[in-house]
Design goal:
Blueprint lengths: L1 H12 L6 H4 L2 H7 L10 H14 L8 H12 L4 H17 L1 H5 L2 H14 L5 H16 L7 H11 L14 H4 L2 H19 L9 H9 L8 H16 L3 H4 L5 H12 L1 H4 L1
């Protein structure tokens, strides 16, 4: 607790990041910090969360980047899903505060890309969803680019075969699906969702096909179905004002499918 108080005081007054020895304490802080904001947590957990927040806003020196990334990769393998979740919230802030430092280091950008995409396949739902949020933010600020290898990777994950639903006994279907298969398929859908939501005010050339790929999973088991519905809902909300212009980017067939999805009863379910 004393170390946390000292780090909070020093990090709050300095523009530079912590020294190497302080950065090596990050794995411990990630495990202590809570995921939710709850005032009922004890002082130690609240201080750990505040300390991580302050440290993520510190300006990094180029020579410190490899150490920080090494620590984050270590945390990504932690048995605690709370630590893996908190890693992503830390990563978001750290990258945005040090955007130009990272953009001058191609190896660091590739490491972060690999780390976030890997956590899309995490066994814990909350971690996968936060990884998708993180990926969307990194794409939107052009820290990462949506290239063919990324699209192909997500499309391949989406093709993970799942057992077909039985009309008479829908409640037992999810229980018969191997968890690893469902996670991989959901990771692909989350990746497509992050790409689509990273362009809230325009329709790039790659978006129509990704929307078609995403729509094919509207009847998948949960949590995939809910991810698709949320993505379509957000797409409609952000593109509604200029839809007359945006729809010119779609073919007639794509527009027919999309229009049917956005006004069908299952969209509002």
């Amino acid at each position: 607790k004393t170390i946390l108080k000292w780090l909070m005081a020093s990090a709050g007054r300095a523009f530079s990041t912590a020294v190497t020895e302080q950065l090596q304490l990050l794995p411990l802080f990630f495990k202590i910090a809570p995921v939710e904001n709850d005032h009922s947590y004890d002082e130690l957990k609240r201080d750990a969360k505040m300390c991580l927040s302050l440290m993520s806003q510190g300006l990094l020196y180029p020579q410190q980047v490899p150490l920080v990334l090494q620590v984050l990769k270590q945390i990504a393998k932690s048995n605690s899903w709370h630590a893996r979740y908190t890693l992503l919230t830390y990563l978001q802030t750290m990258v945005f505060y040090n955007l130009f430092i990272f953009l001058n280091n191609e190896e660091a950008v590739n490491s972060i890309r690999w780390l976030v995409i890997k956590l899309l396949e995490d066994e814990q739902l909350e971690v996968r969803e936060m990884a998708a949020t993180t990926l969307g933010g990194l794409l939107q600020c052009h820290f990462l680019e949506i290239d063919n290898p990324m699209q192909t990777h997500f499309e391949q994950l989406c093709k993970m075969r799942l057992p077909k639903r039985r009309k008479r006994d829908l409640s037992t279907v999810v229980d018969t699906i191997p968890p690893a298969d469902l996670v991989k398929r959901h990771a692909g859908v989350l990746g497509l969702s992050a790409c689509i939501l990273s362009s809230p005010y325009d329709v790039p050339t790659w978006m129509p096909q990704l929307l078609m790929d995403l729509s094919a999973h509207l009847n998948d088991p949960q949590p995939i179905e809910m991810t698709v519905k949320k993505t379509l809902s957000n797409f409609r909300r952000t593109h509604h004002d200029n839809w007359q212009q945006h729809k010119q980017q779609f073919t007639d067939d794509q527009l027919l499918v999309l229009t049917d999805l956005l006004v069908s009863p299952c969209y509002y379910a």
